[in-house]
Amino acid sequence: MNSRVQGQNLTYSIAHDLGIAIVTGAYSAQNPIPIEAELCRKYGASRPVLREAVKMLAAKGLLGARQRRGTWVQPEENWNLLDPDVLGWLLERKYSPALLIEFTEIRLSMEPGAAALAAQVAGPAEKAAIRSAIERMQAADRGDDDPLDADIAFHVAVLRATRNRFYAQLTGFTATALRFSIQKTNRYKGVQLASIADHKKVADAIVAGKAAAAGEAMRKLIQEALDLISKREAVQWARRVSAGAGG
């Protein structure tokens, strides 16, 4: 491996480590990030490599950096939550039902529109990708594929089938968050497999070019997940209140 590739790998490694430290609160406005020289020693990195990692995190909204002022952690409202890395690091935190609910709410406002648009504009290749994802989900039901990967592949295929660059930009974010949320909702339902029939309704409507039906089928799919999460959180909240009253 040449020195340039090694430097890039170290840069990404440092950015990943610092990113997790920031979003989990190890570094914050109250607990500032160490100075450059200290971080170089900690990671065994040169100043250019470290500065490149800082630039990556600044681009994601996690860090601010300025000459003479140094480097500081940005407030959470400045973080780019649509960045797959940032979202992945957020999921390193202790489980947050609020984060799961917020993500599912975004899906509810986004994916039905994507499904409807895909039904209008998807070409043979995009429709084939959606059908392939359904076939993978069916294979997973037989134990011949990974159920989580197959489910994610379906939702990503729908976004790509819109032929809309903005929806396409959301595939990394969606895949990262779905990996977390699907595991949670399946656990709440007491199953490890998604409802293939519900996903197939979306796929069939897209392939048939039925925009309204595709959008509605996707809306029902995600609304069910949101209702499940919200109900679960309400039950947990009631238990905490009851335990507090009993104490």
Word description of this protein:
The chain folds into 2 domains: 3-78, Arc Repressor Mutant, subunit A, CATH 1.10.10; 95-246, Up-down Bundle (Four Helix Bundle (Hemerythrin (Met), subunit A)), CATH 1.20.120.530. A two-stranded antiparallel sheet has the order 1-2. 72% of the residues lie in helices and 3% in strands. A hairpin with a 3-residue loop joins strand 1 (63-66) and strand 2. By secondary structure, it is mainly α. The protein is built from 11 helices and 2 strands; from the N terminus they run αααββαααααααα. It is globular, with a radius of gyration of 21 Å. The termini are far apart. The longest helix has 36 residues, at 211-246.
| CATH-defined fold name of the largest domain | Four Helix Bundle (Hemerythrin (Met), subunit A)
Over all CA atoms, what is the radius of gyration? 21 Å
CATH top level assignment of the largest domain: Mainly Alpha
- Multimer state: single chain
**Unreliable stretches covering 5 or more consecutive residues:** none
Shape: globular
Using DSSP, what is the number of strands? 2
Helix-strand string:
HHHEEHHHHHHHH
Q: What would the average pLDDT be, to the nearest integer? A: 88
Give the count of structural domains: 2
Strand content range: under 5%
> How many individual helices?
11
Assigned CATH architecture of the largest domain? Up-down Bundle
Major sheet: arrangement of strands = 1-2
